[in-house]
């Protein structure tokens, strides 16, 4: 599919073909909305156009009702600036209950990513930023881990985000370039985006199957500032982006997705690691130059050139918050990695490079009941990127022998 946007009077408007293709991916291979389902959408200011398009498409597929939660990051800024510090972790009951009810009714869930006003929180003390997690909710983790809903997260460009990603370009040119990049990484410019994603998902699923068959005991990451060993559970199962609900509905949780992932042993992470990309947690501020040291599975040191207190606060929320809940590998076939762009958005950046996550594990990436009971549990799940062409990844067998997995971003198995 080829498309060009309009740029009359200096303003850029994304081509209708891209919007239509993204909408179809969201309701189709992404959330896979079923007739009669309730659909919950989380959106922020500036995402009205895609929200309305997706709602229209959802109803056309037979959705029973589309419910939209608008989260305004400017109101969060006011709260963080003025509210009593002891109240910043408060989440109203009706907000939590909405998410739990979406799970109980096996609804579809859709969320749009792309930081509006990405520098808004720069004037807030970083030790306060780790206390207010919204729009993230611990109940959403609970619903996700129970596989109650078919859900997807997709990017939607905005001008402020584009200006942050491409600060050297005029605003309209930056917005156009970001749209071109999103179209490329989301495969919107393919003749048939859905078929293109089916092919990529099949490749990722084949990689995941090979890793599962190897039954590795651990992974070893080595590179500049990194020497980290992450233990795996005996029945850790490698997965790609496509999953199933308890009702058997297949969906793709992230679009784009370029990773294969599994649940690590929360008691076995040792060594140190340097993040290879900055981290911008939604509704928070940028964390740069992150380094973490692990002992016996716990993150015992969290340092950064900027924003360390944000992650320290989140990692102190419960016992599982300082342990690993996910380890993911990404090869250099990732279109996001190929772009060379740092998007400062977790959805995109985590799919550009291998990464780990502090917090809750996905229990469905573990096969045995005994190991499921050991998988990490937490209120949080925070991914950060640790892979690059300079980071080698080995698999370690139970006898201590090593198997090369990634070299210069290329699979060795």
Structure characterization notes:
It is a single chain. With 413 residues, the protein is an alpha+beta fold. It has 2 domains: 8-185, 3-Layer(aba) Sandwich (Thermophilic metalloprotease-like), CATH 3.40.1830.10; 215-240 and 256-411, no CATH class. Helix content is 31%, strand content 25%. The protein is built from 13 helices and 20 strands. The chain has helices at residues 16-30, 48-60, 73-82, 93-104, 126-129, 138-145, 159-165, 171-185, 193-214, 308-315, 335-339, 346-349, 369-374; strands at 38-44, 65-71, 108-113, 150-155, 218-223, 226-232, 242-244, 250-252, 259-262, 264-274, 279-280, 286-287, 291-295, 298-303, 324-330, 355-359, 381-385, 392-396, 402-407, 410-411. An 8-stranded antiparallel β-sheet has the order 14-13-10-6-5-18-19-20. Helix 1 (16-30) crosses helix 9 (193-214) and helix 4 (93-104) packs parallel to helix 6 (138-145). It is globular and about 55 Å long. 48% of the residues are buried.
What is the domain total for the residues?
A: 2
Helix percent reads: 25-40%
Distance between the termini: 33 Å
Main beta sheet: 8 strands, antiparallel
Task: Classify the beta-strand content into a percent band.
Answer: 25-35%
Rg is 20 Å
How many E strands? 20
What does the overall shape look like? globular
| Average predicted confidence as pLDDT | 94
Low-confidence stretches: none
Secondary-structure-based class equals alpha+beta
**Numbering strands along the chain, what is their spatial order in the largest sheet?**
14-13-10-6-5-18-19-20
Determine the number of helices (DSSP H or I, runs of at least 4 residues): 13
């Amino acid at each position: 599919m080829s498309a060009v946007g309009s740029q009359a009077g200096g303003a850029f408007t994304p081509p209708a073909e891209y919007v239509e293709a993204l909408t179809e991916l969201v309701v189709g291979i992404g959330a896979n909305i079923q007739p009669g389902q309730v659909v919950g959408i989380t959106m922020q200011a500036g995402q009205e156009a895609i929200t309305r398009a997706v709602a229209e498409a959802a109803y056309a597929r037979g959705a029973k009702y589309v419910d939209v939660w608008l989260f305004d990051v400017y109101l969060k800024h006011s709260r963080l600036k003025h509210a009593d510090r002891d109240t910043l972790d408060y989440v109203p009951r009706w907000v939590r209950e909405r998410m739990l009810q979406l799970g109980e009714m096996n609804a579809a869930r859709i969320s749009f990513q792309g930081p509006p006003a990405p520098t808004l929180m720069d004037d807030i003390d970083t030790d306060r930023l780790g206390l207010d997690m919204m729009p993230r909710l611990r109940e959403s983790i609970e619903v996700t881990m129970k596989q109650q809903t078919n859900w997807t997260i997709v990017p939607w460009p905005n001008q402020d985000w584009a200006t942050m990603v491409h600060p050297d370009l005029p605003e309209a040119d930056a917005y156009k370039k970001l749209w071109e990049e999103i179209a490329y990484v989301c495969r919107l410019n393919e003749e048939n985006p859905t078929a293109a994603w089916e092919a990529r998902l099949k490749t990722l699923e084949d990689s995941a199957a090979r890793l599962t068959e190897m039954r590795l005991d651990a992974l070893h990451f080595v590179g500049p500032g990194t020497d980290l060993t992450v233990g795996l559970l005996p029945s850790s199962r490698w997965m790609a982006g496509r999953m199933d609900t308890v009702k058997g509905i297949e969906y793709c949780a992230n679009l784009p997705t370029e990773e294969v992932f599994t649940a690590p042993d929360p008691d076995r992470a040792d060594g140190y690691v340097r993040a290879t990309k900055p981290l911008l947690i939604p509704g928070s501020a940028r964390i740069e130059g992150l380094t973490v040291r692990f002992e016996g599975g716990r993150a015992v040191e969290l340092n950064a050139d900027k924003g360390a207190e944000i992650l320290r606060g989140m990692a102190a929320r419960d016992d599982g918050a300082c342990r690993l809940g996910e380890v993911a590998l990404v090869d250099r076939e990732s279109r996001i990695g190929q772009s060379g762009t740092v998007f400062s958005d977790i959805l995109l950046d985590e799919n550009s490079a291998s990464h780990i996550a502090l917090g809750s594990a996905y229990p469905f990436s573990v096969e045995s009941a005994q190991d499921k009971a050991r998988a990490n549990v937490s209120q949080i799940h925070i991914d950060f990127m640790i892979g690059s062409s300079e980071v080698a990844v080995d698999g370690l067998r139970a006898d201590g022998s090593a198997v090369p997995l990634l070299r210069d971003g290329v699979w060795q198995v």
